[in-house]
Amino acid sequence: MMLNWWRPPPEVSPAHGTWLRLTMSTGPEEARIALGARLRRIRKLADLTGRALAVAIGVHFTWISKIENGHHLPTVSQLRAWCRCCRVSHQEEEDLLSTLLVVEDAYTQWRTRIRAGMRNAGGRNQTSLYESTTVFRNYEITVVPGIFQTPAYTAAIVRYWRDFYDLPDDTEDVVKLRQSRSQQALRGTKRVLVVLAESVLRTKYASHSDHRTQLRELLVAMKRPTVSLGIVPQTRTVNPSSIVGFWMFDESSVLVELPSAELKITRPCEIALYLRIFEDLQASAVYGGDARRLVAAVLAEM
């Protein structure tokens, strides 16, 4: 996890924050429903009733209905039996298995990982992921990307979630971890491609002084030869391609962070979708002097 959790800033109304949370929390249900609908279609194409399939697999007939309506997920062995009874191709069976594993693994509950402290939020594989990635892509709507965050900015966000989840105070350790990962991402020839909504510049999580320091740090980051940092002006008309921020690690995985879970996407067809979205966002952003002037304007207003 990149420590880029969304939280309602002071100027965002509670109602607006609730809307965002409800919108972002629909993913798991939609994924189960989509898989169930696909399995129902496969069963019908095989000309099997739910009861007949249940007998063949050796389960109660109500189980078939629960799977097809997205209420439950099958196990790997049950899914293989479903495919065998419906005579699907090996390629389609493997694709269904891949989909099942993505649905099962995509959402990792924070409380399991962070109950010993916020330093565990990133998971054990985050460090190696940063080391192996050569091209980072990141889109953010209300928060400065973790790799550009100042210690004070990171600490302010961590403190909020520490209090929210009533966790042990390991803020100092988390800040050190963030700085270490920032160094990994900005090291050598690694490329960092970032698109920010202009609202990122105006949303404050830390003190007035700390926010100014954070904006100045963004100006420094723009000068790095391996960094491409674009900003989408609030006055520009854009397509509603993404309502949440996301990270891409090369073209092998995408991470979407939600208040309650982290969605990890690894299917090539879905990664390709996020890549298209990111390219559209890049086309909507301004760069170079235009981007620096947006940051400078916010600094001047402060």
Please bin the fraction of helical residues: 40-55%
What form results from the Cα inertia axes?
A: elongated
Helix-strand sequence: HHHHHHEHHEHHEHHEEEEHH
- Roughly what is the average pLDDT, rounded to an integer? 82
Rg estimate, integer Å: 22 Å
Strand order of the largest sheet: 1-7-6-5-2-3-4
Per DSSP, what share of the residues sits in E-state strands of 2 or more residues?
Answer: 5-15%
| Backbone structural class | alpha/beta
Low-confidence stretches: 5-26
Give the distance, in angstroms, between the N- and C-terminal Cα atoms: 31 Å
Largest sheet: 7 strands, mixed
* Tally of helical runs: 14
Secondary structure tally: strands: 7
What can you see in these coordinates?
This protein is α/β, with parallel strands linked by helices. Helix content is 55%, strand content 12%. It has 14 helices and 7 strands. The chain has helices at residues 14-24, 27-45, 50-57, 61-68, 76-86, 90-106, 110-114, 126-132, 151-165, 171-185, 199-202, 208-222, 268-284, 288-301; strands at 107-109, 135-140, 191-197, 227-232, 246-249, 253-257, 261-265. A 7-stranded mixed beta sheet has the order 1-7-6-5-2-3-4. Strand 5 and strand 6 (253-257) form a beta hairpin. Helix 2 (27-45) packs antiparallel against helix 6 and helix 12 runs antiparallel to helix 14. The model is unreliable at 5-26 (pLDDT under 50).
